[in-house]
Design goal:
The protein is mainly α and 133 residues long. The protein has one domain. 67% of the residues lie in helices and 0% in strands.
């Protein structure tokens, strides 16, 4: 599993700019930042969503390689992002800005994933990044 994760990370870091930075930003917002708010149900849901997403992406990567189909790994965000319901919350400060970042960045990522999945469905099934192992 560690070798698979390492290979996946090498592929991510081999992508052209700004994609590696984008991926690191998503990890920071969905995996690192929630640790500062871990007592809240929102942070717990985001963490679980990120862990499930990572497991799905590694499974897809192991089976298909680094292809556009990896966008399926963010399926948990389809449930997480609407569940956060920013408009219904009475939160403020850093917690609010973190939640706002999750909703905006994950929402943008879901649009990118949808485009990748459509392109995959239309036949773009070659690896988007190749790395010497």
């Amino acid at each position: 599993m560690l070798k698979l994760a390492s290979s996946f990370n090498r592929h991510v870091m081999s992508m052209p700019k700004p994609w590696p930075e984008w991926m690191m930003l998503l990890v920071a917002v969905n995996l690192v930042a929630p640790l500062f708010f871990v007592a809240s149900p929102e942070a717990q849901v985001v963490l679980v969503g990120m862990i499930v997403s990572a497991a799905l992406m590694l499974t897809l990567f192991a089976r298909f390689g680094y292809v556009r189909l990896l966008g399926l790994g963010h399926i948990p965000w389809l449930f997480t992002v609407p569940w956060l319901r920013l408009g219904d919350m009475t939160v403020s400060g850093l917690f609010y800005y973190w939640l706002l970042a999750v909703v905006i960045l994950d929402g943008i990522s879901l649009v990118i994933d949808l485009i990748d999945l459509i392109r995959y469905g239309l036949g773009e099934r070659q690896a988007t990044v190749t790395v010497e192992e």
